[in-house]
Amino acid sequence: MLDGEVTSHFILEGDSVEVQTVGHPYVDGVSVKVRSSLLLQGRLKVRVRFPYPTGEFSDDGDNWVEPGAHESHLSANFKWGAIIRHQLDTTIYFVDMQWLKEASIVQKGKHYFLVTPSAGGSGSLRLCSLIMRTHLAVILKGWRRRRRRSGKITG
Questions:
Q1: DSSP code of 25?
Q2: Residues contacting residue 34 through CB under 8 Å, at least 6 positions apart
Q3: Is the pLDDT of residue 85 over 70?
Q4: Residue 131: which residues within 8 A CB-CB, separation 6 or more?
Q5: Banded pLDDT at 1 (limits 50, 70, 90)
Q6: Is 48 helix (H, G, I), strand (E, B) or coil?
Q7: Can you list the positions of beta strands (E) in 37-123?
Q8: CA dist 62 to 17, 41, 49, 126, 134, Å?
Q9: Which of these, 82, 91, 87, lies nearest to 130 by C-alpha position?
Q10: DSSP strand E in the chain: where?
């Protein structure tokens, strides 16, 4: 991943799926693009999960057995994105998720969220700007500005 990009290809229920993940070079952010005919049919969803750190040197952050040691919940849910609040010990951050195709998100478990894109469209879903920030007000101000410019919200 020296160039900050990983592309995966696999077959799911007989259909091809391509997932492209790109890391932002300057902030804690990634963009994920999914291409598949399963999206056109409304049969593909994206899971977002938050593990707890392992506490080991070069922490892989894949401790899935301590769900009570941290907290995750939806702080805001929009047609074009969502904001997830995540707390690790005394550190609180917000994950600002945006999608370029209409979708919905629900919390399925303590640290498990499911993004369901609307059926139809181009067969492509882009989840972008999964950026971790510490101030919710900054995120919401940015959301309002972007949505006004794009005509998605008014007021």
A1: S
A2: 17, 18, 19, 20, 44, 46, 124, 125, 126, 127
A3: yes
A4: 24, 27, 28, 29, 95, 96
A5: very low
A6: strand
A7: 46-49, 70-78, 81-88, 91-99, 103-109, 112-117
A8: 25, 32, 10, 24, 22
A9: 82
A10: 5-12, 15-23, 30-36, 46-49, 70-78, 81-88, 91-99, 103-109, 112-117, 124-133
- The residue among 113 and 1 whose pLDDT is bigger is 113
Q: Listing from the earlier edge strand, what are the strands of the sheet with 70-78?
A: 5-12, 15-23, 30-36, 124-133, 91-99, 81-88, 70-78
Question: Higher pLDDT residue, 35 or 135?
Answer: 35
Q: What does the pLDDT look like over 92-149, one tens digit per residue? A: 888 888 887 788 899 999 999 998 888 776 677 776 655 555 556 666 666 666 656 5
- 134: region left, alpha or beta (phi > 0 left; psi from -120 to 50 alpha): alpha
Nearest CA-CA partner of 99 in 150, 59, 62: 150
Query: What pLDDT sits at residue 37?
Result: 87
Q: Is the pLDDT of residue 14 over 90?
A: yes
Compute the Cα dihedral for 117, 20, 108, 94 and give only its sign.
negative
